[in-house]
Design brief:
Blueprint: H1 3-26, H2 43-48, H3 53-63, E1 67-71, E2 78-82, H4 85-94, H5 102-108, H6 121-136, H7 138-166, H8 172-189, H9 204-219, H10 225-231, H11 235-263, H12 272-278, H13 287-309
Antiparallel strand pairs: 1-2
Helix pairs in contact: 7-8, 8-13, 9-11, 10-11, 11-12, 11-13
Amino acid sequence: MDPFFLFIELLPVLCFLILYYHHLQSKKTSPLEPTEWPIVGHLPGLVANIHHFHDWATGILTGASYNFEARGGLTGLRYFITCDPSNVRHIFTSNFANYPKGDEFAVIFDVLGGGIFNADGESWRRQRVKAQMLMAVPRFRNFTARCSRDKVEKSLLPFLAHAADEGTPCDLHDAFLRLTFDMTCALVFGVDPGCLAIGLPVVPFARAMDDALETLFLRHITPCWKLMSMLEIGQEKKMAAARRTIDSFVADTVAKRRADKLEQGISDSADLLSSFICNEDSSDNDDVFLRDTAVNLLLAGRDTTGAALS
């Protein structure tokens, strides 16, 4: 066929695609907002900006009146993202009971087990009250202050001084995440993994937590993650290895705390794991409950504080 006639035949299709693209662009409330394509929705934009998702999402929310609904077309992905204080207050305070996480949330965040992040209703309230009660006692508050001061004096300041003496660049965000991971491990498990030691060693448990959190994030934009998890391929292969490392670390620590209690008692230990083990409520002494609670508390205290410091 003559190329000219082929071009003439394809010209209407090309014009339609251009007009349709401009139509899609005109629906956007912000230049940073991803285009909503047929079939796949916003998924291409989410994947393309995964490397700087938080900065990108901040820009979208700023230009979209602090609310944005992300849709994945036929993939079934659909999320409402908000940073509007009134919405946050409505969801987390005024009408919290109306917004259960649901079964799908627990499936995605399976590594957290039945901990407070996955819990709903009475289970959530019971865990929240128990954690608040243990954290409110003066002994734990004093333990927190002592751990924080010791970690800053014995790890953070020597690390920064060494970097200054050597004239090497220092990633403060990474340093603060390591600092808070060590501190949170000490408060929850009574163990300092030493992530902030000079030389920044690779700590298997810390690396496993990083891999697990990365996988949990990617599951939100990976429609076939369940199949990948079943086959243990791609990012889900890292998740499987990370979960084995996490479970092994927590199980060993729980076993050690139980052995200490039988041999010499750990009533003077102020870390949260010891407090749960010493608790008279038998439902709080189950190994599965202790594992899930400890991992959830570690997650709650690690990234939030590290991100705030940096």
